[in-house]
Specification:
By secondary structure, the chain is α+β, with helices and mostly antiparallel strands. It has a domain of 48 residues: Signal recognition particle alu RNA binding heterodimer, srp9/1 (2-Layer Sandwich). Helix content is 18%, strand content 32%. The protein has a four-stranded mixed beta sheet with strand order 1-4-3-2. A hairpin with a 4-residue loop joins strand 2 and strand 3. The relative contact order is 0.23. The mean pLDDT is 85.
Length: 84
């Protein structure tokens, strides 16, 4: 499938600066260690955010921001309970 199928100019590699793709993971620190040798640009190393999620942020090869997070505090865990 070629990019023309989506319309001219609709998909431009390394040109997206507005989307953050987020994935909830079991252990942010373990994923960081697992991905270290594959990721070229880390935006934020593992950090616990004020709202209770532990997160790591990197850019994929096309420049998209990817956020892996794990709810850590009781409030954050409650907020995500029941979600998959």
């Amino acid at each position: 499938m070629s990019k023309e199928n989506f319309g001219a100019g609709s998909a431009v590699a390394a040109d997206n600066h507005t989307v953050i793709i987020e994935f909830r993971v079991h252990d942010v620190d373990a994923e960081y260690e697992r991905l270290k040798s594959f990721v070229d640009e880390w935006v934020k190393e593992p950090t616990t955010m004020p709202w209770g999620n532990r997160t790591v942020l990197f850019r994929d090869p096309d420049g998209n921001l990817v956020n892996l997070f794990t709810p850590m505090t009781e409030e954050a865990i409650k907020r995500f309970s029941g979600r998959r």
